[in-house]
Amino acid sequence: MATHEVTNQPPPLTGYNVFAADPALVESLHREAPAVPPPTSNSRRTRGEAERRSQGRAAKREPPGC
Length: 66
What we know:
Layout: H1 23-32, H2 42-45, H3 50-61
């Protein structure tokens, strides 16, 4: 049962490139692994997308089957 409306939440990230948004990560990858091409695949570009976050929450709720 909701007790109140939460209004201090940031808007959902859409089209957010978490790799490009981290300049320290980008610089360290270029410095430490210059032969490795920068991440350009769709899966790496969209880690901040709502669907990916939803999948992450689902994975945390459901333990792996053994």
